[in-house]
Amino acid sequence: MAEFDYDLFTIGAGSGGVRASRMAAAFGARVAVAEDKRLGGTCVNVGCIPKKLLVYASHYGTDFADAEAYGWNLGPRSFDWARLIANKDREIARLNGVYRGILEKNGVEILDGTARVLDPNTVEIGGRRVTARYLLVATGGLPYVPERPGSELAITSNEIFALPARPERILIVGGGYIAVEFAGILHGMGSHVTQIYRGELFLRGFDRDVRSVLAEEMRKQDVDLRFGVDLAKIEKRAAGVAATLDDGSVVEVDQVLAATGRRPNTQGLGLESAGVKRNAAGAVLVDAYSCSSVPSIYAVGDVTDRINLTPVAIHEGAAVATTLFGGRPVKPDHTDVPSAVFSHPNVGSVGLTEDEAREKYGDVVLFRTRFRPLRHTLTGSGETTMMKLIVDKASDRVVGLHMVGPDAGEIVQGFAVAVKCKATKAQFDATIGIHPTAAEELVTMRDPLPPVAPAGSE
Fold it and tell me: What's the CA gap between 366 and 447, in Å, rounded?
């Protein structure tokens, strides 16, 4: 008889857990995965996929308006939130089935329910105890809402996808990518959007030019951005809610969206009984191979709070499966990971920010351009695109690339290959652009910005 019921037992069937489970089974391991919600995790159900569908929907308003400048005569138009949500739900249900099919096709047993760790090799699910040579924690993260008077009246990014109606007036609390994305989504659908953030500028961790340009572009669209203020309390009103800010002002809205961060989903998993170490935020502490403080327990994805992106979780899951069952140890590579924010307009980034590059390399050369997209030469829109290259002067390597503008994610994905391959500015310059495109600007910037004087040199 086998020493364990399974070779790998995965808790959580999100992107990272599914990839690790599928690959482990393909290597010949006996694998089971437990999921207490819908298959696919945050990304499929209340994250990347439904959000991007709503982003597409939100662009049609300006697209219709822009079409008139190109000769199209459009009649009366209106927006049906309920129809969009129903269509979105149908697509998500289809994807849930796709994930189930992927697991079953590879021989992974799916256990519906909440799994709790009892010891380094044992879990309990639905009153049944099972054992595994290795456990993999891939339970993702959950929205975090700070305690405030009336905070129970706010919704999170989980609930917004199921609202029965689009809020005419909404207050978005937070300055991360979820906050700015929903500000663009709802504004594009016709809502009056107020977004507040306690810091001086949102999107902390992104390049400062990206942050300031995006704020400027959003304000051009009449999104009410307020920095340096926070939510003090929420009170129910006959028509909606009243949100009092810590500067004393009151914003009356139909809905408050708390996009105030996410926390690793580790509460109630029983990890402490197995001796798994976590940090103050609850994230599972792991080594370079995603192994926890307990040799038989691994963790991937948002539950480790490293780089909380779906492709990163998938990459980490694949590395764990290969390490444990593929015959060779593989460390996930977290350098030069590209990312996008599907705001209005989009943001795309790869590599270091300007501040990070100066700290790491000292002497850097900056190239930056800002222009009106060709499309808007007829529409009259004041929207602009910003692109920025950060170059290590000593090696001529492009160590950071950032963009704010339409299709930024699509454009930066391709250039991320060049950054990952350590391409130099000379190689960018030697590449012939595709004309007329916005992307060609990234290979035609020739004039660097004036160097910044070192601090204290004046």
Answer: 9
